[in-house]
Design a protein that fits this description.
heterodimer; A: 173 residues; alpha+beta; Alpha-Beta Plaits; 3-stranded antiparallel sheet; two-stranded antiparallel ribbon; 5 helices; B: 353 residues; Ubiquitin-like (UB roll); 3 domains; 5-stranded mixed sheet; globular
């Protein structure tokens, strides 16, 4: 059944516009204005839907996935060994890293003999799917409940280790 | 020529061929895996036991099955022999056990190891290994020894396949390293602190099935699946000069020999193995040193294929009403595609049902 493309309605809600002329009563617009004012007035007495962020915060789902964190272990050493599995799993290709070898005397800083000297996540590319968290064999990367804050520049969304690594005072005891 | 049947597939091979080589002549899934056997090294094989197969019929003259599983890499075939590999439950069960034994002392530091992604033991563990270890004791550890500035030795990862000692024996004129001690204390060592610096010694990196011997110039530089491998060659006076270069952008991160489907070094046209010298492997890290031939292909399941866009992409046909894809003329004109000739209909919109 080939119908003309012009008469087809994709949404099923297509209606033809009538070109009926308005009556004098309709042309005065008095009743239409009163009706509109009535709708506005009714909204004064309805509960407010606005949430006054940041004083007031919406409750997150328990499985909410926000910005990433690179964990430290119980001694405060970084867990990440730059194995690259998070970058491999990342469907948006948002993660890059450079690894380096741990030197003598840095055992308290890095857990394994290899560590990530550079670890960057492009938050503009990231889709917060959590596959990096799932791929990580060292339980080093997790997605937190924090949101990625806004910025004026694109460069501000490339999070390096300075923003991603868990602060030392937060380490799990 | 004697005929041997492996997993129901018959093949004619020369007398004296091993079962493993007969299976490799057929190719495909029925080839037993091998960790220690290396067809290009004389005397290798018989140590790792992962290639054990069931011989259900000894030969045409003596049709009795062999009572025990046999190592296919060093058992010669006999006429009329029938071998079961993938079809034998006994072999599969045994191989699972052998992999578990190989992994007993293996540190499982794949996230750190440079061999990860192209490691034979990793592939084997993925195929046969159990997901959890049952080993509770301490894994063996060794004193770290330095065997030179080009090759890194991780003795804890070694599975004692002896391939590297055969390389040193057969490729270099003066062997300075070997296996010391016995049993679970056996280790690769240079005995007297002596750097391994023979011109062909770098091949032990390619030959090592695990990450025990790795390239120090590539140590922790990148993971293999982030690099793009290309076949390349150069004129080298010491070796054939045919290599695979592993690049990231325009930088060469490492150079290896070209490896075939069994992860062995490929052969030259004259049949000799295409080993490469240390100068090609460690010192020529500039793109201008090499003539790039083209991207290197890997087996389908390899992680190295990640991000590989060399394959020809299939054009996807969307199975829907062609008019929906085509759109109305006024809409198509509204899209900023200046210079597009809308009068020519698209190719795949043949039948407008």
């Amino acid at each position: 059944m080939a119908t003309d493309i012009k008469s087809m309605s994709l949404s099923g809600r297509k209606i033809d516009v009538s070109e009926k002329e308005m009556t004098f009563k309709e042309k005065m617009y008095v009743f239409a204005i009163a009706k509109g004012m009535g709708i506005t007035l009714r909204h004064f007495f309805k509960p407010k839907v606005t949430i006054m962020y940041p004083e007031q915060k919406r409750e997150f789902s328990p499985v909410y996935r926000g910005r990433h964190i690179l964990m430290r272990d119980e001694n405060g050493a970084e867990r990440c060994t730059a194995c690259g599995l998070c970058a491999l799993a990342c469907p948006a290709e948002a993660i890059t890293m450079t690894s380096a070898e741990r030197k003598k005397g840095e055992e308290n800083l890095y857990r394994e003999e290899k560590y990530a000297s550079v670890y960057e996540i492009n938050m503009l590319r990231c889709i917060f799917c959590g596959l990096c968290e799932e791929a990580c064999p060292k339980e080093a990367i997790f997605l937190t409940e924090d949101m990625v804050s806004s910025d004026f520049k694109r460069e501000g969304f490339i999070y390096g280790k300075d923003k991603l690594v868990m602060p030392l005072e937060d380490k799990i005891h | 020529m004697p005929t041997v049947t492996i997993d129901g597939v018959s093949v004619e091979v020369e007398a004296g061929t091993t079962i493993l080589n007969a299976a490799r002549k057929i190719g495909g899934d029925l080839v037993p895996p091998a960790m220690c056997y290396y067809s290009k090294l004389k005397g290798s094989g018989g140590k790792c036991r992962v290639c054990l197969v069931e011989i259900s019929k000894g030969s045409a003259g003596n049709p009795n099955p062999m009572p025990k599983l046999q190592a296919s890499c060093c058992t010669p075939i006999a006429d009329g022999m029938e071998v079961k590999n993938m079809t034998s439950a006994k072999v599969q069960d045994m191989r699972k056990g052998v992999v578990e034994f190989l992994l007993i002392n293996h540190p499982l530091d794949c996230p750190i190891c440079d061999q990860a992604g192209e490691c034979d033991l990793q592939n084997l563990g993925f195929e046969y290994g159990v997901a959890k270890t049952r080993y509770e004791e301490e894994r063996r550890t060794f004193d770290k020894i330095d065997i030179g500035d080009k090759i890194q030795l991780h003795m804890t990862r070694c599975i004692l396949c002896y391939r590297c000692t055969y390389v040193a024996d057969q490729l270099t004129d003066k062997r300075v390293h070997g296996i010391m001690n016995r049993g679970d204390a056996a280790e690769i060592s240079t005995y007297i602190q002596n750097a391994v610096e023979n011109e062909m010694s770098g091949n032990m990196i390619d030959v090592c099935p695990v990450g025990a011997l790795t390239d120090k110039t590539f140590r922790f530089k990148s993971r293999v699946w982030f690099l793009k491998p290309f076949d390349a060659h150069r004129d080298c006076s010491k070796c054939c000069g045919k290599v695979t270069v592993w690049t990231f952008g325009k930088e060469i991160y490492r150079v290896t020999a070209r490896k075939d489907v069994y992860h062995e070094v490929e052969s030259n046209e004259d049949g000799t193995p295409a080993y490469i010298c240390n100068e090609c492997r460690f010192e020529k890290k500039d793109v201008n040193d090499w003539k790039i031939e083209g991207p290197r292909k890997f087996e389908k399941f390899s992680v190295i294929n990640q991000g590989n866009y060399t394959r020809k992409m299939q054009r996807v046909e969307i199975d829907t009403d062609p008019r929906l894809l085509f759109g109305r003329t006024e809409d198509r004109k509204a899209i900023s595609m200046n210079g597009t000739n809308f009068d020519i209909p698209e190719k795949k919109l043949s039948d407008g049902k």
